[in-house]
Amino acid sequence: MWTNSTGDSPQLHHQHTSPRERRAIRDNIYRNKRCRMETCFDFSRCQSGFRVYIYPPQRGDEISEAYQKILSSIEESRFHTADPSRACLFVLTVDTLDRDQLSAQFVQNVRTRIHSLPTWNDGRNHLIFNLYSGTWPDYTEDLGFEVGLAMLAKASADVANFRPNFDISIPLFSKDHPLKGGATGYLTLNDAPPSRKYQLVFKGKRYLTGIGSETRNALYHIHNGDDVILLTTCKHGKDWEKHKDSRYKPLDFFLYAELLHNSSFCLVPRGRRLGSFRFLEALQAACIPVILSNGWELPFSEVIDWRKAAIIGDERLLLQVPSITRSVGRDRILALRQQTQFLWDAYFSSVAKIVSTTLEIIQDRVESHVSRNHLLWNSLPGGLYALPQYSADPAQFPFYYAMLGKSPSQQFTAVIHTLTPLQSQISPVVKLIIAVAKSKFCEQIVVLWNCDKPLPPRSKWPSTSVPLSVVEGQTKTMSSRFFPYNTIITDAILSLDEDTVLSTNEVDFAFIVWQSFPERIVGYPARSHYLDSSRSRWGYTSKWTNDYSMVLTGAAFYHRYYHYLFTHYIPGSLLTMVDRLANCEDILMNFLVSAVTKQPPIKVTQKKQYKETMMTQGSKASRWADPDHFAQRQTCMNIFSRWLGFMPLVHSQMRLDPVLFRDQVSILRKKYRDIERL
What we know:
Blueprint: H1 19-29, H2 37-40, E1 52-54, H3 65-75, E2 89-91, H4 110-115, E3 126-130, E4 151-154, E5 168-169, E6 198-205, H5 213-216, E7 228-233, H6 240-243, H7 256-261, E8 263-269, H8 278-284, E9 288-292, E10 311-312, H9 321-326, H10 330-348, H11 351-366, H12 374-378, H13 401-404, E11 412-418, H14 428-437, E12 442-449, E13 468-472, E14 492-497, H15 504-516, E15 522-523, E16 526-532, E17 537-541, E18 550-551, E19 555-559, H16 561-569, H17 572-581, H18 585-597, E20 602-604, H19 627-644, E21 655-656
Parallel strand pairs: 1-2, 2-3, 3-4, 4-5, 6-7, 6-8, 8-9, 9-10, 11-12, 11-14, 12-13, 15-20, 20-21
Antiparallel strand pairs: 14-19, 15-19, 16-17, 16-18
Helix pairs in contact: 3-11, 8-10, 18-19
Family: Belongs to the glycosyltransferase 47 family.
Pathway: Protein modification; protein glycosylation
GO cellular component, one term: endoplasmic reticulum membrane
């Protein structure tokens, strides 16, 4: 055998290690296997917030494509800091993803390089990512270095070594897994009756000897060639022909993607290691994973309830698998498949989502008094969009009203964004305040004073039957209109530009509609996006067509949570760009809400003119007259889609009108009589 005293170079053993030797290896790696957050993590470093620091790369560092995606995801996250003194968590630039000593990606001298870091401190408050550990023939969890007090974000985690509430199990993903966005799932409306051609499928390697061979080598026992298709091949490795047996046959006649997309269940047996690529492939394909990997700590099991999305079997009971899958009813199959699509899209479709989920779990541990509960993690839109710093109570989020049997508040707060001086009692903003205050649903009016002129005295503002408060913007920027001001106490916000023209009837009707769709933007001015194929970019249009994908926030209702999400979720660089341009903040809010809900906004009632025409063209508020305004909005569309990694906006052709709108009947029969006269 080869050995090396550093414990960091290839060690090739030509016979299987004994159980005692495997335990010794495990005990050496996990000397601190009783580590928990309470015993091995320094919470005092996190008093100024949860920040993550990445060590600067050292000369000669070779970083794999997959690990570079992980580092890039952290750098672009809201948690990243370039100041180690502010860091709560530290991440290595030393690539630790592949610790298989036979791999070309194996990095030498990791132990020496890690221990030379100035703030290593035996790994305390460090996070180490790993996809492959151990090597042929036993594939133990040997990393080639001691992790000490560091947390492991590890694929193929074994429950025997996994440190609960400390380590994190992540999925095994390939180097081709996208950095952002990611492919969508395959569950379509046409799939709604959960009937697919196959009941259970698998296609992959078969191991004749060694670890992981027991299950895969026995799959032929339950393959029936009809609706249970389990195809294995021993055609892998250098000497596969020596091991070829009578059951060998080429697999090319069955396309793998076709099997995945046409089966209700997909077998996910262990390979040489506990996890495999089949897991994520099954999730994306809306094929319910049937997991046969005893001892595997499933990815993000600390927060994800896998019983709602997978069948967890036992390798020792392989022959029972077909009957188990056939006992699952159609409604249950549909529910399981729908959950696979939610989990895929929320946490697994890109490297950025896998990394973000990892960091959010750790933040929940650090700030346990405001952590998410299982409902937030396991229900739409998912834990990454439900920030517990806003509220740890699911009933405070618009996404869970129906699930919890809660109704949104019966009142709204109008927030009027003001950029021009208050000139007289006939100013557009004064007329707008009077019209909105007459609404029986209006709780209060907040005027956000972002004008360069001094704040007018209270006597200059109109008298209203509802409280009127004027808040002076601290920064007087465009993004400040979506700041979560403490003065806003209602669930619903009516966002208004100062030159918006709305009647009381229009306000009332839009609010009634919003109460049925509290998670969406509901309003009047609609816009749309399109793909400009000639320039390979997204376009923005204000033309009146039969569909739309945005409702501008110059006259729209939405839930106040989106103010918090806009301020604390969107990267500071995008907010700075919006403020510099004094443009696109309404588009960015539409991108955010559509990314969260996966649904379009809702337009109410036909209304072509919603701006006050008397506003002087030279005023600061008349930015629509600026010839650069439209070009900037085109540019914003593409910058925002690159941030997310996909285009979240969804087209819609639905417009909601009052009953009897435009019908040839007496006006006395209509509830919202003023709307048709506008």
